[in-house]
Amino acid sequence: MGGIKDRVAVVGMGCTKFGELWDKSPDDLAVDACYEAFEDSGIGPKDIQAAWYGSVYSGGSGTALARPLKLENIPITRVENICCTGTEALRNAAYSVAAGIHDIVLACGVEKLKDHYGGFSSLHNPQDWSRVDPFLPPVNFFAKIALRYFYRYGMTVEEGKRVLAKIAVKNHQNGAKNPKAHLRKVITEEQVIKSPTISYPLGLFDSCGLSDGGAAAILTTPEIAREMTSDYILIKGIGLCCSPEQTVLGTEFDYTHLDENVNSARMAYKEAEITDPRNEVDLAEVHDCFTSHELILYEDLGFSPRGRAREDVEAGTFTLKGELPVNSDGGLKCFGHPLGASGLRMGYEIYNQLLERAGERQISNARIGLTHNLGGVPGPNCAVVIYGRHD
């Protein structure tokens, strides 16, 4: 089976500021993100041969992208895969290029969550009355992960909360350096630990918020990319896994790892020919919906040995100046989390880091970057993408 390694190039990317953007509609967000990508790549809407629009709540079909960009008579598909939606748009666009179906395509993710008091849109999926779905709010699920991880690896709750606080502090420090981030405030470990409890032991600063935002990528073949620009990166590998709820609600689930994280990463690493992620990946953008998830992700993605992530957190391994920076743009915690845009936002940071455009957040000699999304708990789906420099 052939892989996607080095068969697709990213020649332009764009991303809006994330936040409570009361003056921006979904159309505005799509235009802002896509036109930054157009300007970056040196092409325009008329050069796009096909497009994929990712959104969980903002727009019911490809028309939601055709309308603001005035795209006519090309295939446009709306995709949705919970928090993996932005990466899903990218994945579909990339496969069309790799398959030789299209030469230049667009992936765009948009979410408008602050459209009325309460956050989420009023659009909901219809209830399937043929079965009873388990309901476990994400914060409760990841609180269970925190407690079980502490217990399994010999930490008191107080010690564990201190480790999680270091993760939150790191992401806030990075987000404060990012002009497009939703939350740009440096915090202390004590503020994290003393923040209001959301689901014990997780507090307010252990949890990401919801945002409005959009992000976009323009993809083409490496051959065409070389004719367009010297500033492009390559997709090295993509992995995606989905599982039923029974996977994490069964009696054998240990609450210290997620198979979907492990297996999606394994797929992407195989395509990218990465055998030692700790030393071969230079930076990563991961789905830090809660600090406890980022903690186990260090192990699920192969950055830390099982049970040893605490040591790396305390050593500063994943800080901006550390051995393997994680969430250099602030992550979901500080950049924000508009569901349909987050995966492409992560790619935007990797793109700028690999092209040495990240300003004061720039990581030295970055050549390989990883993005990771997880959504749909307790029936999780997970997506991992590996990007690399072309030279």
Structural summary, described in words:
Helix 1 (26-41) crosses helix 2 (63-69) and helix 5 (157-176) packs across helix 11. Residues 117-124 have low confidence and may be disordered. 54% of the residues are buried. It contains 14 helices and 11 strands. 36% of the residues lie in helices and 17% in strands. Strand 5 (197-199) and strand 6 (202-203) form a beta hairpin.
Write the layout of secondary structure elements.
Blueprint (H helix, E strand, L loop, with lengths): L8 E7 L10 H16 L8 E5 L8 H7 L6 E4 L5 H14 L5 E8 L26 H15 L4 H20 L12 H6 L2 E3 L2 E2 L9 E8 L1 H7 L4 E10 L3 H4 L9 H14 L4 H4 L2 E3 L5 H10 L8 H7 L15 H5 L6 H13 L13 E8 L5 E9 L2
Parallel strand pairs: 2-3, 2-4, 9-10
Antiparallel strand pairs: 1-7, 1-8, 4-7, 5-6, 8-11, 10-11
Strand numbers in spatial order across the main sheet? 3-2-4-7-1-8-11-10-9
Q: Averaging pLDDT over every residue, what do you get?
A: 93
Class by SSE composition: alpha/beta
Span of the ends, CA to CA: 26 Å
Strand content: 15-25%
Number of helical elements? 14
The major sheet is characterized as: 9 strands, mixed
Short précis:
The chain has helices at residues 26-41, 63-69, 85-98, 138-152, 157-176, 189-194, 222-228, 246-249, 259-272, 277-280, 291-300, 309-315, 331-335, 342-354; strands at 9-15, 50-54, 76-79, 104-111, 197-199, 202-203, 213-220, 233-242, 283-285, 368-375, 381-389.
